[in-house]
Each structure stands twice: as C-alpha cells, then as structure tokens.
Amino acid sequence: MKILTLVARLLDYPEAELLGARQEVLALIDASPLPDEHQQALRHFVEQRFNGELLDWQEEYDGLFERGRSLSLLIYEHIHGESRDRGQAMVELLAQYRAAGLEIAEQELPDYLPLFLEFASTQQHEARGWLADIAPVLGLLAVRLEKRSPDYAGLFKALLALSQAPVDLQELRSQISAEKADHTPKALDKVWEEEAVTFGGDAINGGCPSQRQRPEPGQRRDQQVPIEFIDTPAPVRLN
Q1: 228: exposed, middle or buried (Cβ count in 10 Å: 0-12, 13-18, 19+)
Q2: Is 218 domain-assigned?
Q3: Predicted TM-score (pTM) of this structure
Q4: Percentage of residues in the chain with pLDDT exceeding 90?
Q5: What residue spans carry the region label Disordered (predicted)?
C-alpha cells in the first residue's frame, strides 16, 4: 500500500524534501483506500504542517516523540519495555525484513514505526495483517495523542482503519486516564537522577550505542498505567 509509505514519511522526522512533494502527497491520499473521514484528516494534517514553518513542525515533533516514552515510536517499547524479550523480538523482526529482501542501516532499530510501515507497504495482501499485529500499539498512541496533538492522532487512527483490527479506543482511553505526563521538565529530570548507565552491549540488547534511531528512549515507565492489549484475529508474527 502506497498510503503506508506516505504515513511513514509523515511520522518520521520532518525534512524540507517532504514539503516539496505536496501535490504528490495529496494525490496519494486521494487515491488511498481510506474512508473519507480519514482522508480528510490526513489532508488537514498535510495542509497544517506544509503551510507552516518547517522549524515549528520539527520543534513540535521533538516535543511529542523525543521527550518521554509514552509516545515512543519504537513499537516494542510499548510491548516489552526494556525486558530481554524486546531484543529477541527485534532479532526476529529483522529476520523478517531480510527474508523480504530489505536491509536497514546499522544504527536503525527495526521496531521504529516509520521503518515498520515502510516494510509493511511492500507486503501487498499481507500488509493489513502486519498492521493488525501492532494495532493495540497504534490505538494506544492514538488515544495518548488526542490530548496533545489531535492531528497526529489522526494518522494513527488512519492506520487502524487500514488494519481493520477491532481495537476499542474508548477502553484504551479509560486505561490511560490516570497516567501522569512523562514529558515535563520535572519528569525528565527524574530520569537523569534515577536512570542507571549501562556500558557495553548494543542498541538491541540495551547497551549504549554511539548512534540511536530517533526517537531516543529516555523516560522511565513507572508513571504509566499498564495497557491491556486486545487480541486481534490476524496471525501474530510479533513476539
């Protein structure tokens, strides 16, 4: 699905190159299989961001996705946290990429959502199943973004619509209702005070790599309400 490639670009760090492709972007939205309401949401997102200043968009992006962990675009942050299971899950996902003939840069993490969407877009009739596998994470990010950036929330709701997975957004809203903000200066200062430093290892197994795929994980999850993920009918490929 070409629309997945487009959403991947919109969810990645904003660059000037994207702003120059406005007409192509709108054409892809119009040609997508999305229902009208989601097409309108994507058009609104594009009009708002493309008509503004790039630096403002980049600042907004940093504030949302690079401060705190609750809106991390690293899929397994929301499934496995920092457990060893996350490393094994990424190894298996990377094997799926390679089996499909795709290679990623050494510093990239395979569970970075825009990268995952790029991969899913190449899977033709299986693309919807890949989206359904991560639908609980997409729903979680959608409802968290409703409070801070409804426009970005619309991107995740569009992905949910493409997945056709039965995710109860109202139930997720109830689950996160008591969460405390993890992106405030006070919360981020707490991380610097409490976060242990790990030497050695690599990006997958929790070490200190010299380069990290954005967004950079930094915030503890002890202020977040555990999310109960909803099983989907699609075959489960992710651990």
Answers
A1: exposed
A2: no
A3: 0.74
A4: 49
A5: 200-239
Q: Is 48 helix (H, G, I), strand (E, B) or coil?
A: helix
- Reference 219, options 70, 63, 11, 62; nearest CA is 70
Whether 162 is in a domain gets the answer: yes
Residue 232 maps to a domain = no
Q: Which domain holds residue 102?
A: 2-194
Retrieve residue 22's tokens. 């406005």
Q: Which pLDDT belongs to residue 180?
A: 72
Tokens 């962990």, residue located: 69
Inside any domain, residue 207: no
> In the numeric block, which tokens belong to residue 168?
């109860």
- Look at the chain and report how many structural domains it folds into: 1
Angstrom distance (rounded) from CA 45 to CA 173: 22
Residue 237 phi, psi dihedral angles, 5° rounding: -105, -20
Q: How far is CA 9 from the centre of its chain?
A: 11
